[in-house]
Every structure is written in structure tokens, then in C-alpha cells.
């Protein structure tokens, strides 16, 4: 059980034991988050920059709370207020931020590969908070933590992910993580939103929702990303039809196991991919996911922190 | 004993199970006289080595007092350590469990070995984050000296003269309440090495 990386870029990079280390540590942080005083001095004097060049409320708040509960100082750099709008390249922005000596940069960007680019270019730690359609590792970890708490483990469990799989970094990170830990993963949605080659990641594609959710232990609904449809993507005729075919409501839930867990990474489009009765129903673990998000991000920061000292220690060893 | 201990050569026995039992019994009597007779107390063991010592002390305090055993908590001080970021690989976090209100409590903090005092400093900080205890005392099975902070124990099983490079090994066995395998050993660095 160990984790010895400078960065958390994607689930695809991680060995099973590294994933389990992150989850086990997060479990301890969950206990901390229930204490009356939710703060430990672990990252005192450390700086964390949140570089969010794509809209986010939940993830950014979650990272911010995580860092502050560990006593780090946090700085937020957003899209509209940053020099990105003045034409500065991403790498220039990142190098300038690094020149201010942060210990961790948490980055979200619409372009896949951003986190990996920064991790390679910068000596500080980088945590990926979502890069394009590529990965969203902390989301997959918090989903896994929620599932493990509810189900005890992953072996032999079936998880169905429904919605816009093609444009979803959440789906991608989850498929990789869940299959690596021994779960079976089904993906379901309109053919136009199922990426070719998803089977190579270990998932099985289903066309019909009722087939996909039958016998599933978990149904994870993804948000229909209205902005992509507004941008002129013709993936399905209209949201009403999508909702009828792929929406989770009390009627479709009758096909599911009575003890099925319903998840959603948020933000929820009520009445589109999930009906309010289901989102707020007894199956829903959506708010558990949010609670676990803070613990998982604390775990990620705890484990990546200290790259500078590690390098210095190696240097001292070489000098000896 | 780990392979690492074996490499460090022979371990010299310092206390056997009977000596550990005697020392704990004496500490428990003192704790009972000082504290337990004047109201409720609670024991908090510092993970990992302090927890079995705290369990045994709780039983012995109850015997000395003739009352129910005091409540026991555990603290894992990893997040409060001052030497956490010396490498990329972090220690595994243990569970902190304090099943009683710390606010106003009379607490005996328990560890197996008192050395630099840094662990106790971290444990005190963590305890304070749970509330403001009425008082905190410190009980250790072995005090081996070499303090780096102004911290002293109130109840000591055995004071041991050691070199800074020595290793004091406390072995716990049994169920934590009775421990026929308990012993303390001293490893001298350098001995047994090529």
C-alpha cells in the first residue's frame, strides 16, 4: 500500500494499490470531516493554486474546503479574471504561477492533456480537476469511495453509466477505475454518444436503458451537457426524446434492483436525465458523493504533497 | 521483531512480562490515587504502541479503584507530525477514535516509549482540536531520555539510560488486557553489523 507520485493526472496511470491507498486515506479524512473542529495542521504553510479555466462550483469548492481543512493557503485563478483572456498561453500562465512558488496546482481546462502537460513542465505537484473529455480522477475516486462504503467492495458488482459517455471525463475515469478494481461496467446512451472503442476500456455498451439497468448494483446518471448541444452538436433530436429513452424515473426504476444505488456527478438536470423523485429517492447517494469529494481531495493533496522536499532529499543523498 | 531489528543485532532484554505487569500496576495505582479518586478520568493511547498500554492500564486502574474501567480513546498523530514531508511516500493514516467528550475531561495520555517528545506534542495538539480538557497527564511504559521538547511524563514504568542511536523495542502480544508476551528490549546500533 503506497502512493509515491508528484501528481494525480489520471486514473489510467494508477496501479490498483495506489487507488486503494488513496481510498483508504480518504476514509480517514471522512472521520476528520465529522469532527467539531474540521482542521488539521498537515499542510500549514503550503500553498495550493486552483487554476480553473472552465466553470465549476462543486469541484472547486470541494478542493478549496479540502485544502483549507488541512491548513493550506489557497488561491483561486478563474477564467474571466485570468490573463488567459489577454492571450497568454496556458504554459506561460502555469510557469508564471509556479514562479510564485505554490506547492500544488489544481487545474481544470477544456483541453485534454492539460494536467499532464503542466505536471511535466512544472516541479510542483499537479492535480487534475478535469481536462476536456479525458479524465476527472478525483470524481472517479469519490464515486469509488461511495460505492465501497455502500457495497463493501467492487468484485462482481455491476455498474451502469448512462448518458453522454463520449464527452464525459467522469465516465472515462470511472470505467477505468471500476474495471481495474474488479467491477463490471455497462455504458448506455444514444449510439451517437457512445465512443467507439469503449469496449477496449473494459465496458459493455447497451442501447436500451432497461437492459442496461437490469440487475445493476449501481446506476450512474451523467448530465446531458446542454452547452454541447447548443454548440450545434446533433447527437439526439431533442431533450424530451432523450429523457423518454434514457431518463431515469419511477417508471424505469421498476426495472432496477430494489436496492440499486443511484449516483450522479452533478450538476443535475432535473427532469432531463433523472426525475426529481429518483434524485431525491431512497436509492440516491448523490449527496454522499459530494461529502466524499472533500475527503478524496484531501487524500489526493496529502499524497502528492512534498515533491520539493523529496527532490531535496534525493539531492542531499547525492551530495553525501 | 522485523528483519530490520534482526540486522541490528542482538536485542538485550530489559523488562519481561512480569516486570511490565508490575510497572503498569504501580502506574495504575498512582493514577488511581492522583486522579480517579477525584472524579472520572479517561485514557487516550497514542497509536500504535500506546493503545495496548492504555487498554491494560484501564483495567488496572479499575482494579485499583474497584470501579468500572475508564473510557479509552486512540489518537493517530500522523496529520500532526512535524516531519511528514521528508519524502513523496506518506505514512498510512490510522484511525483517531475518541468515544467521549474531550471538553472538560481529565485525560491520561498513554504511550509505550517516550523519546524526543515530538509524538506527545503532536498528540496534545490533536487532543486540543477535540475540545478543551480539564487536564492532561502523560503516562509511558519506558522513558528513554533524549527529549527535544520540554515534555515530561507524570507516570513512568521504567526510566532507561540509552544512546541516541539505540532502539527500544516494546513487544505487545495477547489481547491487550492481559499480556503474557509483553516485553521491552534494547537494541544497540552497530552491534552485529559487519
Can you summarize the main beta sheet of chain A?
5 strands, parallel
Low-confidence stretches of chain B: none
Strand portion of chain A: 5-15%
The secondary-structure element order of chain A is HEHEHEHEHEHEEHEHHHEHHH
Number of domains of chain B: 1
Which structural class do the helices and strands of chain B define? alpha/beta
- What share of residues of chain B is helical? 25-40%
Give me the CATH superfamily of the largest domain in chain A: Aspartate/ornithine carbamoyltransferase
Can you walk through the features of this model?
The complex is a heterodimer of chains A (320) and B (194). With 320 residues, chain A is of the alpha/beta class. Chain A has two domains: 11-135 and 290-309, Aspartate/ornithine carbamoyltransferase (Rossmann fold); 137-287, Aspartate/ornithine carbamoyltransferase (Rossmann fold), CATH 3.40.50. In chain A, 41% of the residues lie in helices and 14% in strands. Chain A has helices spanning 16-32, 58-69, 90-99, 114-121, 137-151, 169-180, 209-213, 226-230, 239-246, 250-253, 276-279, 286-304, 307-319, and strands spanning 47-52, 73-78, 104-109, 125-131, 158-162, 184-188, 203-206, 218-221, 261-263. The longest helix of chain B has 18 residues, at 17-34. In chain B, helix 2 crosses helix 3 (50-65). The model of chain B has no long low-confidence stretch (mean pLDDT 86). Chain B has 194 residues and is an alpha/beta fold. Chain B has a single domain, classed as Rossmann fold (3-Layer(aba) Sandwich), CATH 3.40.50. In chain B, 26% of the residues lie in helices and 24% in strands. The chains are: A alpha/beta (320), B alpha/beta (194). At the A-B interface, helix 1, helix 12 and helix 13 of A face loops of B.
